[in-house]
Amino acid sequence: MKNCFIGQSGGPTVAINASLAGVITQCQKEGFTHIYGMINGIQGLLKNKFIDIKDKFNSEEKIDALKHSPAMYLGSCRYKLPTVSDDKDTYDLLFKKFNDLEITDFFYIGGNDSMDTVAKLAAYGETINSPIHFIGIPKTIDNDLMGTDHTPGFGSAAKYVASSMLEIAYDSSIYKLDAITIVEIMGRNAGWLTAASALARTECNDA
Asked: Out of 64, 105, 116, 142, which one is annotated catalytic?
C-alpha cells in the first residue's frame, strides 16, 4: 500500500496548480491507494484539515482543468515549521498522523519556507528511521531557490513584469514630456524579477 500527502504553500503562481496536477497524475500511475490533499498546507494538516483527492481527478479533462486553474486548489499558508529543539511536539503530532494513515510519500509545493519544511521533516524522519519520502516541488516567482536554474512561477511573473514595463514605456512615449516613472517590483532578497524588466527594452524604447 502506498499513500501520500500533497500540499501547497506560499503565494499562488500560474504554475502551482499544474505542479499539483503533475503529482496527482504520477501518483495515480504509480498505484497510490490514497492521495491526500492538505487544506491550507502543513498548517491545515496540524488541524486535521485534509481530503482524499484521488477520485476527484479521475479523467484527463479534470486534470487538464486543474492545470489551467488560477490560485491554489488546496489553499495555502504562511507557516514556518519550528525547529525540533523548539517544538518537538509538533513533529511528534505530524508523524503520528503519517503513521496512522500509513503515509509513504510527502509532497510539498512551494518556495523557500516550504522547502525548509520539507528539509526539516526529512531530517527528523531520519532520526527516527521513518521510511517516508519527503519531496519538495519548487515554486516561487522570486526564482531564489538554491540549486535551481529557474523555478516554476518565475517565467510567467517575469513576462508580466516585462509586459507591464513595456506598456508604461509606450504610454509615456506618446507625450512630449520629460518624465520619470518609478515601478516597485517585489523579490525579497532576489533581483530576478527586477532584472526581467530589461526584457521590455526594444528598438523603439529603452525602458
From this structure: 142
